[in-house]
Amino acid sequence: MTARRVPTSTYRVQCHRGFRFAHVHALVPYLHQLGITDVYTSPLLKARTGSLHGYDVTDPLQLNPELGTEEDFDALLRELTSHAMGLLLDIVPNHMAASLENPWWVDVLTQGPSSPYARYFDIDWHPPSAKGVWENQVLLPILGQPYGMALQNQELTLCFDARGFSIRHHGQTLPLAPQSYGCILTHRLDELRRHLGDEHPGVQALEELMATLARLPLWTGTHTANSAGMREQLEAVPRRLSSLCASFPDIREFLEENVRILNGSKGDPGSFDRLDRLLAEQAYRLAFWRVAQEKINYRRFFDINDLIGMRMEDPEVLEETHALIFQLIRAGKVTGLRIDHIDGLADPLDYLRRLQDYVAPDTSPQGSAAALYVIVEKILMGDETLPGEWPVSGTTGYDFLKAVNGVFVDPAGLDTLELVYAGFTGAEAAFRDVVAQAKERVLEDLFTGEMRRLGHQLAVLAECDWYARDLSPKELEQALIEITACLPVYRTYIRDAVVSSRDRLYIEHAVKEAAQRHPSLSSAPFEFLRRVLLLDFPASLPPEQRQAWLGYVMRWQQLTGLVMAKGFEDTALYRYTRLVSLNDVGGDPDGGDLPGDLLRFHRWNQAKLARWPHTLNATSTHDTKRGEDVRARINVLSELPEGWARALQRWSRWNRGKKRDLRGELIPDANMEVLLYQTLLGAWPLAEEQLPEFKGRLQGYLLKAAREAKLHTSWIQPNPAYEEALLGFAESVLEAATTNRFLEDFLRFHKRVAYYGALNALGQVLLKITLPGVPDVYQGTELWDLSLVDPDNRRPVDFGVRVALLEALQQRASQNQMGMARELLSTWQDARIKLYLTYQALHFRRMQRELFLEGDYIPVSATGGRSAHVCAFARCRGGTWALVAIPRWCTRLAPAGRPPLGRAIWGTTSLLLPPDAPTQWRNMLTGENLSTAREGEKSLGLPDILRRFPVALLHGVTAE
Fold first, then answer.
1. CB atoms within 10 A of CB 299
2. In the chain, what are the domains?
3. pLDDT above 60 for 92
């Protein structure tokens, strides 16, 4: 393996059958011209047919053939190498597709716990819900109706072909264990003997096959199918059967008639008994999809039944599933990894250490000194920090997104918005209560089975504790639900008997808040759970019970992240709509992190540079709730709270007649109405020709938002009447009719918000590229990004437009940089200004790689009447400096449409530079040369810095 490569910048692309290796290959020259150093791809391993994201891996040992051939992949790598670019690959260690395209999964469905792959998957073969009835089976919740109905409606049919016997269900072919074939082969066997005679070679061959099957034990979990001999015999059964049928047509007719008989007759329930017995002998138990939430006995990715958890805590499982990934890394083809859903793993630290060890076996990597550049999808909440012992370079950037977004939120306006929101909606609950209620809801609706298993295990632990043995399982499970709902972070990381002070703090907080929220519940189960979760062992507890407590905590930790994701991200963020630009992954919608506080922001960046200098800086991802420029617009409402309040009241009054009465309730309610108006302000297109498409996208977004909120409709129980009323309201308020007072008034207000939002967006771009960390550009966002939540933000990107625009900008900039800056400002709607800023800043960063990857971060203070409206800092390394300044809260600087430039706006406001800063600077965005003040403190005036362009990136070099 070559030396560890740290990207200077990354560009995320979503690969699928519509965007293949060849497409990425063709894109590389453009990305190089843009200033990107590393292509960052979605997963590239073989996934389910037609996958648009690659997270449903079916075979980790080969590249996805839908993306192209190995030759196509190698051609892409050669193109990257020719531009000195790297490849950052997204991988999925937590789960695989529970799909019939997955050969490992099919083997488990065939042989159950006897399969050599059974230990790869996180399956509980003895779940409490089975109660001895269906142990050693995996629940397969794929039926569209209850099992009995599906059986009698002949939705489950026995089939026979050259591959042997199988079960067909709506286009899916489920395997049957060869050992269970006896049920089919022995039916009417006496009739066959009488018809053909005992000496018939076909009859004798059939009986020999049945004798072989009798010697092969059915999967029971007490034997293994690993032995070569047994596997060979099992695999030979379908071949022998096929050969037998080819040689003896009478045998084929006999078996086909048996298949017809076993498939039963509609209207005759008793005719399905044999098929039911055959299905009962399989390693899976077919079930109605709705029972999955209560009875599922494998760990899923969130609540998605067809994504099954992997046991990465087993070193052999890690090595086998990562074999191709390690091969690509050691060959230098992949230069870094993004680890998806790290919190789903049983022991993230152990996984990450072993990952680095497989890459470079002779090292003991820690942090930024690790052998391979690795970032993790870890969502940090509040003041939470990434565990310092993890051998990674940082996160995928949601913590950065939150910090930078907060720079543009006016805290005073946010307080006013709280009053406006409460007054308009009548909402009284604090956001933390909204989150707790949402988590309780998803625990009840989505993770019932998981909680019951944990509750059952907790009751078993209680039986061995003097003080807890008399607690009822019900009250223990209720306490577990409440504590889980109150955990303020995604998960803790307890992995041995030593509980960190960080984890102790979070668990103590959860226990205390849960007890306070439910004073009617006894304190005893809370206290017992506190002791278990903190591994506060009684002195008399034997070693095996101590290990059981630890195992319980580690299993609970794998669940809490799922509950936070579904409760916080996918429920609470759609229920609380005060200012939805704060409602993103890892965000803080109640403003508890003091948005707008530049001192706190600078301290955060200094700490990041000290500990995680190479973490990703992201402002849009495939999972963000809104595109970066949508958030930038909506943030403007914090500067215009009174104007927003008046508009909200007007629009609600004018649109009241467009609402539908549904059982005494007007649809939409006030909360959804706020979400709709803010979404319109944030995502309304700048080009009129995009309106028809936008209206369709809006309908899809509102439907998803309503179902995620789970208040009036949901994915599990859709409410068609509510959804029709909601979408009808949205359609009616956007009608271009003279009687629609709302639309004309909205467009006036939007024009103002969109202009200031664009200024925010430019500042956001420059911060991302110049702050400590590695800037990441999500596909297409070098132009205005007015996308909503997925799948909207995964729409195809027109790269041809971007290539042409960049070529024109490069040519124009080389001729007259100052003139182009003025032109771009006057035509900001076409997004060339964002592309130009991205291009110039990325190129400067690439030229000054070490300055931005390792250079000091120095907060720069402003003085003068507009000092609160500028965020500035310097980066320096040796004698090389960069100075960055961006405006904020621009509604109070200049009227909409007038750029906040020059002395008329900034007056005497200046930046106070460090004493050792350069005296001569060059503006990399305009080409201007600037000098510091000749008298007094070393300073640069904002009227000079922001004379021709609304953000500034200055380069200076001190004399040696």
1. 23
2. 10-96+309-396 (3.20.20.80), 103-297 (no CATH), 428-575 (no CATH), 798-957 (2.60.40.1180)
3. yes
